[in-house]
Amino acid sequence: MAKVLIVCEQRDGKIKKATYELLGASAAAGNETHALLMGEGVTAAAKDLGQYGAKTVHVADHATLKFYTGEAYALAVAQAVKTLSPEIVLASHTPSGKDLMPRVAAKVGVGLASDCTALTFSGAKLVVRRPVYSGKATAEVEFIGAGPAMATVRGNTFSVPKPDASKSADVATIAVDFGSLKTKVIEVVKGNSERPDVAEAAIVISGGRALKSAENFKVIEEIADTLGAAVGASRAAVDAGYRPHRDQVGQTGKVVSPALYIACGISGAIQHLAGMRTSKTIVAINTDAEAPIFQIADYGVVGDLFAVCPVLKDEFKKAKES
Amino acid sequence: MNIYVCVKQVPDTETKIKLAGDSSGIDTTGIKWIMSSYDELAVEEALRLKEKNAGSLVTVISAGPARVVDTIRTALAMGADNGIHIELPESADNNFAAKSLAGALKKEAKVDIVFFGKEALDDGTAQTAQLTGEYLGLPSATVILGIEYSATTLKCKREIEGGSYEMVEMPFPCIIAAQKGLNDPRYASLPNIMKAKKKEIKMLKAADVGASDADQKLRYKNFQLPPPKQAGKKISGDAPAQAKELVRLLHEEAKVI
Ligand SMILES: Cc1cc2nc3c(=O)[nH]c(=O)nc-3n(C[C@H](O)[C@H](O)[C@H](O)COP(=O)(O)OP(=O)(O)OC[C@H]3O[C@@H](n4cnc5c(N)ncnc54)[C@H](O)[C@@H]3O)c2cc1C
Questions:
Q1: Is B94 in the A-facing interface, judged by CB distances under 8 Å?
Q2: Which of A30, A135, B14, B31 is most buried, judged by most C-beta within 10 A?
Q3: Mind listing the pLDDT tens digit for each residue in B119-138?
Q4: Which domains occur in chain B, in start order?
Q5: Is residue A216 helix, strand or coil?
Q6: Same domain for A104 and A58?
Q7: Is the complex ipTM higher than 0.90?
Q8: Could you tell me if residue A189 is inside a domain?
Q9: pLDDT digits over B204-243, tens only?
């Protein structure tokens, strides 16, 4: 058993799914699980984190933390680490977690294992493995020297625990001295997408060059909306202007690890595989039976995506309704 | 302005990764080394800033084994003015690298801005820019898609999730980590490749910049290749039959929907 601090993430007061995954994994291993919740007006959300496994939630509720900035948030996390002396500190490898945790590691004076895809709690120790060379290999990461083991964890590495409504966490506060800060967020501009982000979604359906136009992506979008999935794209589709770069999956795009990844009209170039090979179940739809994507697909459909996708949407809809 | 760019050399993205015999790392024989692609954006941004500010100098820094000098030359051929190589062992982690980069930057007379790529294509950790910022006491902004410069501050467009972005303001001196979309990196022209050969690269050791093995906080070991995937199921029939069968398998066998 270890004393674990989970750095929670919320946006607009809503706790991220990835946070629940970490709380659940730590609690399931029998750890003394502490959570750190930062933001403005977030105290009310603290208690319920107990339903996902937090024993105590430490809250830094402050106007300075209204918007995420690495500078201010890192001061809060470093303060919590100093106050609580955990043996293990975990955060999610999300856009904020990625930006934040290196700053914390430098302040605390320890190393940070980023984007881990396998974690084992072994007594007070943490054993982690992470992809390297864009998932072409993995390596175990050993923490050298004193101080807590610190890691960020790829989304969907653990599943979200079932909340236990009978549980609620103790709530404590963490006071942070922010001093004078140099960075400030002057504006947050919301994307217009109603769909989940590719990097966070439990299901991703991606299209490649074979889609031939931005409009044709409609066949992909309709399936995505039936399943509540995110839409991804190959680099060829992004370079051709069919999708924005933020949807690109791969070595120079996003690395995703959903429960289900559906690749439509994507050949499976090494740089694309780098971004999705840790997906739990992979489906490929491609006219070319020899396309490399079939080598890593659990289910392969050799066929024309324009014929398969519309009927597939109907079948998914039926399955959802039954 | 005194503009700095930190670059990393990584295996070409086409590289087939093979492990060293004892699984302590990868077998580097035959690897073609390139500049990490986000670092190309960082170099480009530095050059554009220089072009807007007469009398500026762009210095490229890379920490790593002797081979990384080639990547410094690539940046010099793109138009950077001079280079600094800090020799580090192959196994150096992000912290050792950042301590070294910060140490080298501290020795410079004046630093106005330091550009990085948002992450490197080999380890993909996205740490070095922020770590270096912490060690220099400078503000840093990562995953930057656009920058508006004014005399004393800059406004950065920072990508966050779901297609959203935020505008972050910070003063000079500061650190920027570039994301794809910031610019289109230029290619080195032949005359510039020739000129780059004569540009100066300062050679330093970790000890020269106040870094040492003690700054190594992580050790990578027990490398593994991904387990070979079992051949998947091919679903036959016409499109309606295939769709039906796929949904059945996803529901009953894979249990993902
Ligand atoms: C440095 C570098 C970084 C890169 N980073 C990335 C990255 O991050 N992500 C990425 O994806 N790529 C990346 N690439 C590009 C990569 O090498 C490939 O070029 C790209 O992934 C190909 O995209 P694609 O599969 O959509 O297109 P193609 O390779 O052209 O494949 C199209 C596929 O569609 C199939 N097809 C055609 N018509 C139909 C139809 N009607 N129905 C079904 N199937 C059909 C074809 O059989 C073919 O297999 C990178 C390359 C480099 C050099």
A1: yes
A2: A135
A3: 999 999 999 999 999 999 99
A4: 2-215 (3.40.50.620), 232-257 (no CATH)
A5: helix
A6: yes
A7: yes
A8: no
A9: 999 999 999 999 999 999 999 988 888 899 999 999 999 9
